[in-house]
């Protein structure tokens, strides 16, 4: 079975080797059809304490590490990258 990978924003990095990641998903309401935002917080393992609050990261499901941690941070998502624009010579 493949490991689940989620993308979210770090909301806390205060504990040692652990970050709390807020993952947001959008679901359609069963009766009314309106799109609703649902959020969930995951405790993820950060071995080197290299990720900071406010960063967007990808987390991967793992075997249980502690009571709350069953996820680990695999990479930082670069959300501030500007797309390359084609230059128009005039």
Automatic annotation (TrEMBL):
<dbReference type="InterPro" id="IPR012340">
    <property type="entry name" value="NA-bd_OB-fold"/>
</dbReference>
<protein>
    <recommendedName>
        <fullName>Small ribosomal subunit protein uS17</fullName>
    </recommendedName>
</protein>
<keyword id="KW-0694">RNA-binding</keyword>
<comment type="function">
    <text>One of the primary rRNA binding proteins, it binds specifically to the 5'-end of 16S ribosomal RNA.</text>
</comment>
<dbReference type="InterPro" id="IPR019984">
    <property type="entry name" value="Ribosomal_uS17_bact/chlr"/>
</dbReference>
<dbReference type="GO" id="GO:0005840">
    <property type="term" value="C:ribosome"/>
</dbReference>
<keyword id="KW-0699">rRNA-binding</keyword>
<dbReference type="InterPro" id="IPR000266">
    <property type="entry name" value="Ribosomal_uS17"/>
</dbReference>
<dbReference type="Pfam" id="PF00366">
    <property type="entry name" value="Ribosomal_S17"/>
</dbReference>
<keyword id="KW-0689">Ribosomal protein</keyword>
<comment type="similarity">
    <text>Belongs to the universal ribosomal protein uS17 family.</text>
</comment>
<comment type="subunit">
    <text>Part of the 30S ribosomal subunit.</text>
</comment>
<keyword id="KW-0687">Ribonucleoprotein</keyword>
């Amino acid at each position: 079975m493949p490991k689940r990978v989620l993308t979210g924003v770090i909301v806390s990095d205060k504990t040692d080797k652990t970050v709390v990641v807020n993952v947001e998903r959008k679901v359609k309401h069963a009766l009314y059809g309106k799109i609703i935002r649902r959020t969930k917080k995951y405790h993820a393992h950060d071995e080197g304490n290299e990720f900071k609050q406010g960063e967007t990261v990808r987390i991967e499901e793992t075997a249980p590490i502690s009571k709350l941690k069953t996820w680990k941070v695999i990479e930082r998502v670069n959300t501030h990258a500007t797309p390359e624009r084609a230059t128009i010579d005039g």
